[in-house]
Amino acid sequence: MSKKRLKASKYLAVFVGCESDSLNTLLTKQKNGSLVPYLNEEELDTLWEEIYGLFKAKVHIVFISQDQESSKRDVTKEYKDVWDFVEGVIFLAQQTIQAQPPHIPPCLAQNVKILHMFLCSPLIAPSVQASSANLCLEWHKKELPSVGLRENVLKYLLKTALNGTAKTNVHRLCEFHNGLDNKELNKGIRELIIQAAASTKFLFNIKGQNFLTSKIIADNSLVEETYQMLKEMACSGKKKHAAIYGKIFREVWLLGAQDTKQLIENCVQDIVEHVFLLPRSGMEMNKIGQLMVCFLYQFNCAKSPQIKKTFSQLSCPEVWKNLHSDNSVYRCNATDVFFHMYPLQRPDVITRPETQIYLDMQHEIIKKLLLDECPIIRCLAIRGVCKVIATWWFSIEPETRYGWMKIIIEDLTYDASSPEVRCCIYRSLKHLLTNRHSTKYLETVMPSLREQFADVSDKVRKAYIELLIKIKTTEETKHWNIVPLEQILVHLETEGPVLGVLLVRLVFDTFINKKKPVTEMVRRIKLTIVKNRDAVFNFFKYIKPIMGFSDAAKVIDVFLDNIQEYVKTAISSNRANEENISTASVMTTRQQNKRKRSALVENEKIVSENDLTKEKDNDSKDVSKNNLSLDNPLITQTLISIVGLLLKNYSEELENHPKEQKIIHDKCVVYFPRWFTFFKDSDIFKSLLFTMGFLPRKSTSRMIMIHSYYMSQVKKLPVDADESTYLLYVSALCSWGMGGQILELVMGWFNDAFRARSLNSTFTEQKQKRIKIQDAVQPKPLLGIKLLSAIFINPANHIKVMKNNYSEVFDLWNYLDRIKGLVEQRLKVGPLHDPLLTDEFIRECFLMYMKLTAILKTPEESERAQFDSSATYLELVDWAKSVLYPEVPEEIPENETGVASNFTESSSSDQTSSLVISILSDLLVMGQNMIDVGQAGPNFIFTLGRFTLTLLKKGSGLVFLIPSMCILRAVVEYCKLYYGKKDEHKMFTMMAYLIYKRCLITMSQTKYRTEVASRYIKLANTLAVLSSTAEDGEIEVRISVG
């Protein structure tokens, strides 16, 4: 038996064995699970009379047994036999309705009426309600005899649509609703419709919108309810919501009665009156204003003349009034609304000449807005003009367009009052690209703005570049006709990362284009290197967001092969020249004896030829700077550096692509040793060292002695070595996991320096497994400080060393603790007459000790006890109170070169005082840094704050002004972040208030000479105004340090 027959038999089985003999007799006529087709009309009437009696009795059991606890009972299981009977009734009813020709017994309508009642009862099983709803919908769809209670179906469908997720629930509701007469709704349905008006299931569905429209028309009291909902939604809703409500209200106005129209007009009038009064602080309205404008726009864009006329009557007078307001905020809002509604229409203007006059009035007001004294209004006007020109190109006279653009180009591009105005010009000109005619117009306008590409404001230059990128997407306009490539490269040479990436995006296709051969890419890059090497370097420095990994791997591969081919050719050529020279100079003994004189002449000739050859080579080198061969060292040096940059920037991608990684690394391992020898003692060699530093250790280990070479170069560096030089070596060694050897070398130098004051330790160099580090000829402790800075200031080096060499770093910190003893000796005996223990070294070493204190953090997997940086720092503060504070002078030391120098020309007391001031200033700044990075608690801040106040109260407290203000800023930011309005916030703001008050007192003291005070109060103009307000005993301090 088929599934359909089995299902039918199941439903009919519920009637078998009932008390009605007539029903049992009729059931015997079923065939194949079907009964209705085999009954005549009289038998069908009898069938439904019998079922109706049984149906009422079954239903009575459910409703009569309800009590106060009925809501807690599981009605689905408790009355399963009843629900099975109801399902059987619904099945027979569907067969009866679908029979051809249809015959509807009177009792069937009574049964269907009971099913209508099921839809609103909480005692009915959900599955039964769903089946009942389907039957009721089919009953009404076929327009069978009315049984009333249509509201029950509507209410059930509304609940289902609101609680369900399928769109079909809304569609089913709308299909049923279309057959209903619009009339006033009962309270339950009204509440559900109000919920539907707030539901995105209805708002974002066209049929749902139509349903809401018809219901609001049927009951105009819903207008006020929906409008109230719109106002509540304004704080959290989206523009799309407001636009949909506007559309619904517009349709209600078009289709509703006169009293409904009046209610809609009242709502629109209320919005129009208030939208101009909303506060604003920038280019855009606040969120409420934006939603209100979206709502009003639906009326303004309507095609119906009637609604346009009514909307103009409501809005235009308010727009004109606020455009001429003295209040700049009202004018801003009016300008925003004006350009959204452009062109304004007047209901009393009918003829074409009158319309043109009214348009001319609007065009004149636009000119005034472009020249308004408020910069925000000028910005809004610029944006509005560009949108108007692009949208209404054919409706605006060329003279009008020219007048507007003349003001923008000749006046506003030089607006010095606000960079936002200049920035807005280039952001707004993008709108002209939406129209083919205005795009051509923009092409004629932009060359006159070429000079503005060098605007002093980063925001303006960014907007200009983004405009050029947008123009680049159009086929008609070429960006290089606006700003030449040479000018773009000049900016790429100096711009930072943000603008640099945009400039690379702009000119990327100029250099790297898949449609052109690789040789053309190389030629263009070489040509640009000759013209502007730094620009090409930055091009590849900022290229990662634009160029994918596959293209980067291809560029690396091409550059490596080009340089290798050049090196190979150059080596072969050098060997050939050497062989020719040696062959020409070889003479047999016999020839020398016979023709000594001629041999002498020949030798002189050869020597002269060699000299000429050298001169020609020198000339060719000079000429090579202007050609594109790799004989030009500038080109070769830059290409090698570019390879290093790409290896660095795409290191993660290389790890994820082992095939490409192996190809590139294998080439580097083969090529670099030969280059190492070939380029040695040339300017190119440093670039090669830079690039080799970005290869992983497993690759560089295959290049003999490269690690030891880098280490030996570190040891040979002079104390005054350039930062880029020692950073190059340190970064390479750290990336190869050799940071521990640098730490060992530095500790050896420190040990030699401390030995002079008997502060050295029994430190011994650890034996390395692969590379033996020989002792340096002379210890360089100051250079050691620089090497440590190169490790811990560079994020990549810091992470690798802390991960691989934490124990060595901790030992270094522990070793540097002896700097406190050295400082104490220095204060006791005066300057130390040792070239290794200068005041500069003491200060830098103490600073490094504090830096290590701040950055030391025990790894999670380590068995060590957790290192407490805050507690260690506070111990250092306590030591400073007892040792350094007594040495702080009452007068600022006389020193023209400033505190940061070594004070070699000053007296011994001045040198000591300056050293103390330097160390204490560094201590305060380090405390501020620890607060910023979250390593501070209440005790930390109070201790540091009290110590700061103590230093400021000294006679020379002015020298601590700048670090004190840094601490003040950090404390205030900390309070805002961690405490808000809690009690702790009161205490911390009180501490901030005391520090700030003491800073003001220190700055206002008259005992300092002007030239001395001006050295330390150079940040006075960047300090924010202190705002103290008494509120419930709380002193709130708002401070901002520039």
Automatic annotation (TrEMBL):
Pfam families: Condensin2nSMC (PF12422). Coiled coil: none annotated. SUPFAM superfamilies: ARM repeat. GO terms for cellular component: condensin complex; nucleus. One of its GO terms (biological process) is mitotic sister chromatid segregation. It comes from the Eukaryota. Gene3D superfamilies: Leucine-rich Repeat Variant. This is Condensin-2 complex subunit G2. It comes from Timema douglasi (Walking stick). The lineage of its organism: Eukaryota, Metazoa, Ecdysozoa, Arthropoda, Hexapoda.
